Every structure is written in structure tokens, then in C-alpha cells.
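CHAIN AND CONFORMATION:
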Amino acid sequence: MDNNCDFDMRQYPFDVQKCQTTFAIDGNSRLLTQILKGNLSYDGPDNIASYLFENISYINPDQENRIVYEIKLGRRILSEVLTTILTTILLLMVTLSMLSSNRK
């Protein structure tokens, strides 16, 4: 099993992350085992750390004994705005008000 998940944060907080998971059989086990495509579902929580599980889909790499699935993770925009942007604005307002009160 191989899991590739490179997070691209350039569009934060509007970013969507795509992670690929590969299930493969290597070596002598290929002679005794066959991988069949089937339905894959995610039964865990929708909220994973700061990400929101969006969907899981099958990707066909046109190779035998290999199945690749892609998992999409997004963010809860309102949560990100309230916890990062709003907090930053409030801290900036407090700082500016303290600076202006010190001048008087």
C-alpha cells in the first residue's frame, strides 16, 4: 500500500487536498492473489482535523494488480474565517486602540 498526499497550501483557506492511495501486490504474491475493483466507502467522521472529507473515487491506472483511490479533503470555510481571519482582525484592532491611547 502506498499513500501519496502532498498538501498544497497556496490557496488557503479555500484549498482542496487530493490524496492518492495505491493498493498493489508485488513479488510472488501476484501468482496467488488478484485485486478486484469494488465499492469503497468511508464510514469515519466527516471532520478530520481541520479538513472536511468530501469524497473518495476510483482511479484506473491501467495496470494489473493495482488499484488507486483518490481522497478529496476540503476546509470548512466559515470555521477558518472565524478562527484565523476574524481573530487576526480583532488582535489588530486591540493593538491599534492601545497605540492610539498611548499617544494621548
